[in-house]
Automatic annotation (TrEMBL):
Residues 1-343 form the Major facilitator superfamily (MFS) profile domain. The lineage of its organism: Eukaryota, Viridiplantae, Streptophyta, Embryophyta, Tracheophyta. Keywords: Membrane, Sugar transport, Symport, Transmembrane, Transmembrane helix, Transport. It is found in: Membrane. The keyword Transmembrane helix applies. Belongs to the major facilitator superfamily. Phosphate:H(+) symporter (TC 2.A.1.9) family. Belongs to the major facilitator superfamily. Sugar transporter (TC 2.A.1.1) family. The chain crosses the membrane at residues 32-51, 63-82, 88-109, 121-139, 151-173, 236-258, 270-290, 297-318. This is Major facilitator superfamily (MFS) profile domain-containing protein. It comes from Camellia sinensis var. sinensis.
Length: 343
C-alpha cells in the first residue's frame, strides 16, 4: 500500500513514483524492505528447530499456546508500529508463532483424530491455511481503499482475531493421549482421554500401540541419524526431501512477493492486491480432487504446473518487461493465471 511505503520505506516509494529511469529490477531493491518481508520466515525457520523439543518436553497444548501468544504480540506490534523496527519485531514474533503452530497443530490433530478420519482432518488444516490466506488478501484489498492512509494498520492488527481464537482455544484443549503417555507415563489418564475422544470404551488395542510406540521412541538416541539409514530411505524421502524440494523450487518467491511482482509488471496498487486474492483462492480446487486423483498424481501434476508457470512468467518478464516500462495490463494478467495452477 502506498501510505505504508511512504511511512516506512520512503526511498522505495520515491523510486516507484518519480524515478522513471531506474531499472524495474531495482525499484524494490531495499534491504530494509526485504528484511521486513523475510523476517517472518527466518524467525519461523529458527523457531521450528526448537519448537519440537518444547512440544516433546511440555506437551502439544503448551506449544500451541506459545504460538498463539506470539501471534497476538506480533499483530499488536504491527498494528501499532510507528517505526520500521517495531514492524520487523512484530514480524519476527509472527514468525515464531508460525514455527510453533505449524509444528504443534498438525501433530495435535493427528494424535486426536480417529485413524479413519486422520487424513481428512489434516486436509482440513491445509484448507484452513488456504482460507486464511484468502481472507488476508481480501482484507488487504479492502483496507487499501480506506481514506486517510491508515488502512494498513487494520490489515496488520486484524491478525489478532485468529490469534485470539488460537490462544483462548488452547486454554481449553485437552492434552493428547500420546502426550500424556510421553510426559507422565499415566496410562490410565491416557485411556480415559482416548475413550472420551473416540466415543467408545473399547480403546485398549490403540492404547497398547501408543504405549509400545512411546517405549520404542525412548530407545532412539539420535533420530536424525536414524532416518538417514538406508532402510528408512522411503520415510526420509517423504518426510524431508519432498517438502525440502517443494520449498526450494522458487515458487514461494512468486507467492510471498506477489503484490511487489504484480506492481512491477504494470498493475496498480489496487489491482496488484486483487491479483493476490485470485491466486490465493486456488487451494480449494486441489482439496476437492485429491481423493479422486490420489496424492501421487496430484503431486506430479502440481510439479509440472509449477515448472510450466515459472517458465511462462520468467519468459514474459525477460522478453517483454525489460529494464524499464511495464508489460501492459494484458500481459500482466497472463502472468497471474499460471500461479493459479501450482497451489
Amino acid at each position: 500500500m502506498d501510505p505504508f511505503l511512504k511511512k516506512f520505506f520512503p526511498e522505495v516509494y520515491t523510486k516507484m513514483q518519480e524515478d522513471t529511469n531506474i531499472s524495474n529490477y531495482w525499484i524494490f531493491d531495499s534491504q530494509l524492505l526485504t528484511s521486513f518481508t523475510s523476517s517472518l520466515y527466518v524467525a519461523g525457520l529458527f523457531a521450528s528447530f526448537f519448537a519440537s523439543s518444547i512440544t516433546k518436553a511440555f506437551g502439544r497444548k503448551p506449544s500451541i499456546l506459545v504460538g498463539g501468544v506470539a501471534f497476538l504480540a506480533g499483530s499488536a506490534l504491527g498494528g501499532a508500529a510507528f517505526n520500521v523496527y517495531m514492524l520487523i519485531l512484530g514480524r519476527i514474533l509472527l514468525g515464531f508463532g508460525v514455527g510453533f503452530a505449524n509444528q504443534s497443530v498438525p501433530l495435535y490433530l493427528s494424535e486426536m483424530a480417529p485413524p479413519k478420519h486422520r487424513g481428512a482432518i489434516n486436509n482440513g488444516f491445509q484448507l484452513s491455511i488456504g482460507v486464511g490466506v484468502l481472507l488476508a488478501n481480501l482484507i488487504n484489498y479492502g483496507t487499501q481503499k480506506i481514506k486517510g492512509g491508515w488502512g494498513w494498520r487494520i490489515s496488520l492488527a486484524m491478525a489478532a482475531i485468529p490469534a485470539s481464537f488460537i490462544t483462548l482455544g488452547a486454554l481449553f484443549l485437552p492434552e493428547t493421549p500420546n502426550s500424556l503417555i510421553q510426559l507422565s507415563n499415566d496410562h490410565q489418564k491416557a485411556k480415559l482421554m482416548l475413550q472420551k475422544v473416540r466415543g467408545t470404551q473399547d480403546v485398549q488395542v490403540e492404547l497398547d500401540d501408543l504405549i509400545k510406540a512411546n517405549e520404542v521412541s525412548k530407545t532412539i538416541k539420535h533420530p536424525f541419524k536414524k532416518i538417514m539409514q538406508r532402510k528408512y530411505r522411503p520415510q526420509f524421502v517423504m518426510a524431508i526431501e519432498i517438502p525440502f524440494f517443494q520449498q526450494v523450487t522458487g515458487i514461494n518467491v512468486i507467492g510471498f512477493y506477489a503484490p511487489v511482482l504484480f506492481r512491477t509488471i504494470g498493475l496498480g496498487e489496487s489491482a496488484s492486491l486483487m491479483s493476490t486474492v485470485v491466486t490465493g483462492g486456488s487451494t480449494f480446487m486441489s482439496m476437492l480432487i485429491v481423493d479422486k486423483l490420489g496424492r501421487r498424481v496430484l503431486l506430479t501434476i502440481g510439479g509440472t504446473q509449477m515448472l510450466v508457470s515459472q517458465i511462462v512468467i520468467g519468459s514474459i518478464m525477460a522478453t517483454q518487461l525489460g529494464d524499464h516500462g511495464t508489460n501492459g495490463t494484458k500481459l500482466s494478467w497472463v502472468k497471474i493465471e499460471p500461479p493459479l495452477l501450482w497451489q
